[in-house]
Amino acid sequence: MVPMVDLKKQIREIKDEVYHVIRNIFESGQYILGPHVADLEKRIAHYHGVHEAIGVASCTDALHLTIDALGIKQGDEVITTPFTFFATVKAILYTGAIPVFVDIEPDTFNINISEIENHITKRTKAILPVHLFGHPVDMNKIMHIAKKHRLRIIEDCAQAFCAHIRGRKVGSFGDAGCFSFYPSKNLGGYGDGGMIILNNSRLAKRIRKLRNHGSPGSYRHETVGFNSRLDEIQAGILLVKFKRIEKYTKKRRQNAALYSYLLSNKVTCPVEREGSYHVFHQYTIRSPKRDKIQKKLKEKGIASVIYYPVPLHLQKALRFLGHQKGDFPLAEKASKEVLSLPMYPELEESTIQKIASVIHNVV
């Protein structure tokens, strides 16, 4: 079986270093908000060229805590995309705010920036762009709109660690950038984890309190917060992988280039806009024959996944928003055509060639 992600191959290379770090953490007896978390926060802040980085329990929490700390509340509106993972919109709803969807660009799958201003109202407080599959949203255009309308920007960078726009890393443009360390992510731990990066020290102070029961420390609680802390073991593992993240990213891009070379005349391959640096968390093709392709891949023992088969505006859980089929036609069309193929740094060229051959035979 060819899996979507083979974490076993990666651990074989780094297991001695990982085991050494974990053993030291066990011997220290410190497991929550310890030196490894602080070190990871410092290194990730420096890597992104920002002043602050805050480790939390997941990217969902990163988004939620950021939205909460920005003062976005019941009845406020946050503009985002209907074509992303459910956690993006869930984080908005946790605060009582209302997600307002804008359709996507058919080539990058990211939010259609040219349509954003048509959805801004007096209740709009923020824009939450998602750098989907690892391709950056054009943040310069987003920031122009935000400045014009005095809106906050929260970047969902769950799938885009290392992605940048002309050298500037995603997550560093808006009020905050939110990252995921879920195991399958480009920089992933061996459990859940997340990170918020930002430049505003006052906002960072609020978020640090919120992640720790609303407490600045010593059992004093200044607000009603949450329990969302990145643990020492995950931070230690992430520090080991962080040293290799540029190498991992380069290999992902090489794998993507080979895929595109082999498949470009058979299916619609991912694009990389000028000035953008795509990190290919997913290598996602489009084809009207998507279902046939997936069926044949499965017969050959090759995994593939549809991200996402149901756009958010058509999810049962969000029925109360009042959307129906046809509201966001580009997202709906994408959901019927997209297919993500196996993608990870250790993926071998011969395996990519095998996958491409199966797709050629179908198309």
Characterize the structure shown.
The protein is an alpha/beta fold and 363 residues long. It has 2 domains: 7-102 and 110-242, Aspartate Aminotransferase, domain 2, CATH 3.40.640.10; 245-362, Aspartate Aminotransferase, domain 1 (Alpha-Beta Complex). The protein contains 11 helices and 12 strands. The protein has helices at 7-28, 35-48, 59-69, 86-94, 139-149, 201-211, 232-242, 245-263, 290-299, 329-337, 349-362; strands at residues 52-56, 77-80, 98-101, 124-127, 152-156, 164-165, 168-169, 176-180, 194-198, 276-277, 283-286, 338-341. The longest helix has 22 residues, at 7-28. The radius of gyration is 20 Å and the shape is globular.
List the helices and strands and how they pair.
Blueprint: H1 7-28, H2 35-48, E1 52-56, H3 59-69, E2 77-80, H4 86-94, E3 98-101, E4 124-127, H5 139-149, E5 152-156, E6 164-165, E7 168-169, E8 176-180, E9 194-198, H6 201-211, H7 232-242, H8 245-263, E10 276-277, E11 283-286, H9 290-299, H10 329-337, E12 338-341, H11 349-362
Parallel strand pairs: 2-3, 2-4, 4-5, 5-8
Antiparallel strand pairs: 1-9, 6-7, 6-10, 8-9, 11-12
Helix pairs in contact: 1-7, 2-7, 3-4, 3-6, 8-11, 9-11
Terminal Cα separation, in Å? 22 Å
How helical, in percent, are the residues? Answer: 25-40%
Average the pLDDT over all residues and give the rounded result. 97
What is the overall shape? globular
Radius of gyration: 20 Å
- Name the strands of the widest sheet in spatial order: 1-9-8-5-4-2-3
Our estimate of the beta-strand percent is 5-15%
CATH topology of the largest domain: Aspartate Aminotransferase, domain 2
**Sheet with most strands:** 7 strands, mixed
Question: Which CATH top level class of the largest domain fits?
Answer: Alpha Beta
Write down the secondary-structure element order.
HHEHEHEEHEEEEEHHHEEHHEH
The CATH superfamily of the largest domain appears as Type I PLP-dependent aspartate aminotransferase-like (Major domain)
Which residues form runs of ≥5 with pLDDT under 50? none
Category by helix and strand content? alpha/beta
Please, how many domains? 2
